[in-house]
């Protein structure tokens, strides 16, 4: 449905703020045109805009004539005969009201849905109209309440990162609220704490769970670690072949104490039965190792009591740039879970944010990469247990790019085996103002068209 002209949009807004109750033609003329008492010409002007709205509704849905009901009487009245889910203004208020009565986990879903309906200023097309002032004030207060309640619900279910994201946005709009600033500081401290669980979902049917954790992958001493390698299994951390601060660089210096000879010795033993794909010449590859192994090759390494699974999911170019694709990543993960199911000790398996460093996965961002890892893990877990827990470990400074709330929603969707089409995407629902009439949507109270001054 196309957006109605300004005066028709104002008439629609007047009917919407009535909440489904009848409004007389004289009340519409008074509140939109500012005339009282209404004369015959004023009533005709109202009727013309109602007819225009009915035609617009018919154009969009085929049954628009029933959306604005005329109730005859001494003075004709109009009523917006729609369900609450057809008017964002009504739906927003209903969702917030209902969510405040629910337990925390359910409240998160309801309040998140309500806030997804909010875009821009409420009833912005009729700002300054007296009939809209009270509703606008109530909506703004309800919007603030919904954000506070959502932050509390996230905290109650242990998702401090999601609570922080909501509270930070609210604090930006309320700079004078010192208590809110204190809450933001406390949440930031908790989120940055080592080992903070940002999201967790149990899959009883597969006897496993998936967790998103803030921290350092190499500090997960109770878990088997997953470290990504290139197809050449390079180990030189001189910042030309491998950057010292990369996960491979940290593996060498933190877990192997910088003893590259010991790490290379283990790699040679693990790779001795793996057929090489090719051997580069030194003239083509001036630094690093020359033998290439298949993408998806898995090695098992040991650093004291710490078991490490190395997976080759990228290719080291002769220009010393590591490259990977979504297909390479998916294949590497499939091989990893098969290897883990056969050779793991049924401990938690911890993996970092794949492709977050120099070895980018072409076309995949942080959310998509994590979704690829989770999908492959659950696919193998449906065949047989791989590990009691897949632990996705994200550095505190990378949490924002992951989106813990969206990730938690994605995990819930996997309960029934749902999949994500194409590259593993966690999709954001487009926001909508609880009072717009934009685009070919079901009718809502108007929001984004520009209102003229009153005639």
What's the short story on this structure?
With 455 residues, the chain is of the alpha/beta class. The protein is 42% helix and 14% strand.
> Helix segment count?
14
Alpha-beta content class: alpha/beta
- Average pLDDT level: 82
Largest sheet: 8 strands, mixed
Shape label: elongated
Strand content: 5-15%
- Poorly predicted runs are 60-64, 417-455
Straight-line distance between termini: 26 Å
Number of strands: 13
**Helix amount:** 40-55%
Note the run of SSEs as H and E. Answer: HEHHEEHHHHHEEEHHEEEEEHEHEHH
Radius of gyration: 29 Å
Oligomer: single chain
How would you describe this structure to a colleague?
The chain has helices at residues 6-17, 25-33, 40-61, 88-99, 104-116, 130-156, 160-173, 178-192, 247-255, 260-271, 326-343, 366-381, 399-402, 404-413; strands at 23-24, 68-71, 77-80, 196-203, 208-214, 224-230, 278-279, 291-292, 298-303, 306-316, 322-323, 349-351, 389-394. The chain contains 14 helices and 13 strands. Strands 4, 5, 6, 9, 10, 11, 12 and 13 form an eight-stranded mixed β-sheet that branches. It has a three-stranded antiparallel β-sheet with strand order 1-3-2. The protein has a two-stranded antiparallel sheet with strand order 7-8. It starts with 5 loop residues before the first helix and ends in a 42-residue tail after the last helix. Residues 60-64 and 417-455 have low confidence and may be disordered. 42% of the residues lie in helices and 14% in strands. The longest helix is centred in the N-terminal third of the chain and has 27 residues, at 130-156. By secondary structure, it is an alpha/beta fold.
């Amino acid at each position: 449905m196309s957006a109605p002209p300004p005066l028709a949009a104002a008439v629609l807004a007047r009917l919407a703020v009535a909440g489904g109750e009848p409004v007389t033609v004289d009340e519409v003329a008074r509140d939109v045109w500012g005339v009282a008492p209404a004369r015959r010409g004023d009533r005709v002007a109202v009727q013309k805009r109602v007819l225009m709205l009915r035609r617009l509704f018919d154009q969009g849905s085929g049954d628009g004539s029933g959306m604005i009901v005329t109730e005859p009487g001494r003075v004709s009245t109009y009523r917006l005969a729609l369900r609450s889910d057809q008017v964002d203004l009504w739906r927003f208020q209903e969702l917030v009201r209902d969510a405040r009565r629910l337990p925390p986990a359910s409240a998160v879903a309801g309040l998140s849905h309500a806030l997804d309906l909010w875009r821009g200023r409420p009833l912005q097309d009729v700002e300054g109209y007296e009939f809209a002032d009270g509703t606008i004030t109530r909506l703004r207060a309800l919007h603030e309440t919904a954000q506070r309640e959502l932050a509390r619900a996230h905290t109650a279910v242990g998702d401090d990162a999601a609570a922080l994201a909501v509270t930070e946005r609210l604090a930006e709009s309320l700079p004078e609220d010192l208590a809110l600033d204190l809450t933001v500081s406390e949440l930031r401290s908790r989120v940055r704490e080592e080992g903070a669980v940002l999201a967790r979902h149990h899959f009883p049917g597969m006897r496993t769970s998936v967790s998103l954790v803030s921290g350092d992958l190499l500090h997960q001493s109770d878990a088997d670690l997953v470290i990504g390698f290139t197809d050449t299994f390079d180990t030189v951390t001189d910042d030309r072949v491998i950057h010292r601060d990369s996960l491979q660089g940290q593996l060498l210096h933190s877990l192997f104490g910088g003893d590259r000879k010991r790490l290379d010795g283990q790699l040679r033993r693990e790779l001795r039965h793996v057929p090489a794909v090719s051997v580069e010449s030194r003239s083509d590859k001036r630094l690093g190792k020359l033998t290439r192994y298949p993408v998806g090759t898995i090695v098992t390494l040991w650093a004291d009591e710490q078991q490490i699974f190395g997976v080759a999911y990228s290719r080291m170019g002769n220009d010393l740039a590591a490259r990977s694709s979504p297909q390479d990543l998916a294949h590497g993960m499939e091989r990893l879970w098969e290897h883990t199911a056969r050779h793991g000790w049924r401990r938690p398996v911890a993996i970092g944010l794949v492709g977050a460093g120099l070895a980018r996965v072409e076309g995949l961002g942080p959310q998509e990469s994590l979704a690829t890892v989770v999908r492959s893990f659950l696919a193998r877990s449906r065949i047989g247990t791989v590990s009691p827990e897949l632990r996705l470990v994200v550095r505190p400074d990378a949490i924002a790019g992951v989106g813990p709330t969206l990730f938690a929603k994605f995990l819930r969707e996997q309960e029934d085996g749902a999949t994500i089409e194409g590259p593993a995407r966690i999709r954001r629902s487009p926001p909508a103002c609880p009072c717009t009439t934009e685009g070919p949507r079901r009718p809502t109270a108007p929001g984004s068209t520009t209102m003229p001054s009153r005639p």
